[in-house]
Design brief:
The protein is mainly α and 175 residues long. Helices cover 50% and strands 0% of the residues.
Length: 175
């Protein structure tokens, strides 16, 4: 079963532009029961946080432009989803919201809920997830660069302190 959808062509475009604010409301109404928007960042000294995620489904914070089932913090993907090799671009997210069971029979997502049939609602939710992903990745980049930057400054300070200490020791020997 290979459900990999090709890169969007002209006929694979989302028909309308979405509204991010309405998309956030739709996320809260339709998705937040199972999914969250946790962004897993780096802890102190650049280590990845190891705490478990706090929802029944995977975090949708950075889903955009990723392969389905690729989030390491979530370990309960169905085999159907893992074998699908779906890439979460705008078109695939848009089609998914129309009916996950249609795209991947056997998936758990929205199994007992009505899918979003409104084209506008799906476009709004895609816009929200895409913009949230961008903001989350920008935040993660800043967090990593701050962590790496402070570590780099710390190494420079330590190196300078060691150099000063060696110079002082050498000066003592010369006296």
């Amino acid at each position: 079963m290979n459900m990999l959808l090709p890169a969007p062509k002209k006929h694979h475009q989302i028909p309308i532009d979405g509204d991010m604010k309405q998309g956030s409301r739709l996320f809260m109404m339709h998705c937040s029961g199972c999914h969250n928007l946790e962004v897993f960042t780096f802890g102190s000294r650049g280590t990845v946080e190891t705490r478990k995620q706090s929802s029944n489904g995977p975090s949708l914070a950075v889903i955009y432009n990723r392969t389905a089932g690729s989030q390491l913090k979530y370990g309960f993907y169905t085999d159907y989803l893992l074998k699908s090799k779906i890439y979460w671009n705008s078109y695939n997210l848009f089609k998914w919201m129309e009916g996950p069971q249609k795209m991947i029979p056997g998936t758990l997502c929205m199994k007992n809920k009505k899918p979003l049939t409104s084209i506008q609602d799906r476009a709004d939710l895609v816009k929200f997830l895409k913009q949230f992903d961008k903001a989350a990745n920008d935040h993660r980049r800043k967090t990593v660069s701050v962590a790496v930057g402070s570590t780099q400054r710390n190494y420079q300070e330590q190196s300078f302190a060691r150099l000063k200490e060696r110079v002082a020791q050498e000066s003592e020997k010369l006296k």
